[in-house]
Amino acid sequence: INLLFAGEELHKVEQWSATYAPQLAKSKQNLALGWLSGAWQATLNLMGKTEHRVHLLGPVYHEDQILPKMQYVNDQVGVFGYHVIKMWLAYLFAEDELAIKHAACAKNSRMSSAPFLVIGVYDFYDPLIKLDLYHKADEETQQSYQGEISLAIAKLQTAAEHAPMNYLHKWHLLEAERSRVFADESSARKHYEAAIKLAPRST
């Protein structure tokens, strides 16, 4: 899952998953296999190798079977990862209502023991989803979104101060999106340009 979220080429993620999934199954590392299989299925979705884009219903992962099992054994880390993958896919395919649904579920199942990169994906995409939905929301929800978005951006700014190679481009992108939503074209342009400039140097 780290390879997928880190932006590795999809065919490489697919090859890596196909190599290591049988090893995890053989050694009965079921929790790790669940994480890998979810990311593998998401990879197949993105590659157009399944009929679904957002739903994890395919040859290596079937959410209707696996999610209930994770819930039954109280695998909160696995449930969190599932919802993060779903919110991420939904955002990428502009299914905002589904994205916000899974973002809320991810928030409720978030565990500090989850992989650091997966937590980072949630922290980055959750405010992006709320920005996309901002003008569709009622006034009360907009006020809630404003506070949550501001908190997420401030948190990312702090992270960027400590690790700019990892976070500074993401902070600029969130600031750009917030400026766009609130019709500050000058600020949006400035932050978009900075994000584009910094992204190739990020890790």
How would you portray this structure in words?
- The chain has helices at about 1-5, 10-25, 30-45, 65-70, 75-90, 95-110, 115-135, 140-160, 165-180, 185-200.
- The relative contact order is 0.08.
- The protein has about 200 residues and is mostly helical.
- The mean pLDDT is about 90.
- Helix 8 (about 140-160) packs antiparallel against helix 9 (about 165-180).
Outline the fold blueprint.
Blueprint: H1 2-5, H2 10-26, H3 30-46, H4 63-72, H5 76-92, H6 96-109, H7 116-133, H8 139-162, H9 164-181, H10 185-198
Low-pLDDT stretches: none
> In percent, how much strand structure appears in the residues?
under 5%
Outline type = globular
Helix content: over 70%
Provide mean pLDDT, rounded: 92
Please provide the ordered H/E string of secondary-structure elements.
HHHHHHHHHH
In total, the number of strands is 0
- End-to-end span in angstroms? 16 Å
- Tally of alpha and pi helices: 10
Q: Radius of gyration, rounded?
A: 18 Å
Structural class: mainly alpha
Largest sheet: none
